[in-house]
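Consortium newsletter contribution from the modelling node. Members have asked for a concrete example of what our holo predictions look like. Here is one, prepared for the zinc ion complex that several groups have been discussing at recent meetings.
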Amino acid sequence: MTKTVESVIKFPYKRSLGPVLGAFMTGLTEQKLLGIRNGSEVLCPPLEWDPKTGKELAHDFVEVGPAGTVQSWNWVASPSEQHPLSKPFAFALIKLDGADTALMHAVDAGSIDAMSTGMRVAPRWRGERKGHITDIEAFVPGEEAQGGGGAGASEPVTMMDYNASITYNTPIPSNVIRGEQANEEGRFLGFKCPTCGRMYTSQKSFCPIDAVELTQEHEIDLPQSGVVSNYTIIEPVQYPGQTETERFSRVHVKLDGVDVVLGFQVLLDTPVDDVHIGMKVSAVWASEGEAQDFDPRREGRLIGWMPTGEPDVDDPNLVNRMP
Ligand SMILES: [Zn+2]
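And here is the predicted structure:
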């Protein structure tokens, strides 16, 4: 079975609602659905401007619903954790009674067979409401609103919290897993292409020149010494979670005798102003005991690269060797 790693990207933010959506959200806390007059029409959800002319609308709100008619719908058979309901449901455009435009919301009808265009639905309110569209848990078939109770917001709702979030799984190739095991043993695992003889790190599962798969039988141990072929000096920006406060360097190390460059490595005991291309370096590994205290983001037991003090390598092509 392929090993996978689950990753989550979260992006929490706040938005201001403005006078029209703010009034709509405040209405939700009071179990009221508000539309806005636009000439002879009523728009729900309300807008700040006439969608046809762009003319600003007066804040002339009118209560609509609570029941309405499904205009169109789409069945969600396998909801994700970000969907409003954890069981199969429909997203529907619902024209609330008294409104001329449709509101999109979830319909909890139990099964796809219970859904139809033209069906009548009414909101199922949450017991606790905070001025968010999810104050309505879902619409349900019928004419009568359900749920609810309790008080509305004590003050007008002006802001909305939102969490954008993506969860994804990345498969980890077996070469990468074996490479990580080798790092735990203080080794750099590499692969040698049986056709062209080029060598690669364990990040590669095939030779990109010959399209030959690289497997356990092509494994080699890569050298533990090399030369700085390029570098970056980083000025740490103090975003939340940043632990670095001082300038630091990351170097590319071309390993001795092979065509392999390891990117963005830690250079030890070297002030950033002294970092330069051509420095000879060798790998420093933590002992087994020391490895326990390691930053979990670190790869294996590699602490970094120590300058050896040997004369610099003077090769103008070094900078062109990329990882
Ligand atoms: Zn090859």
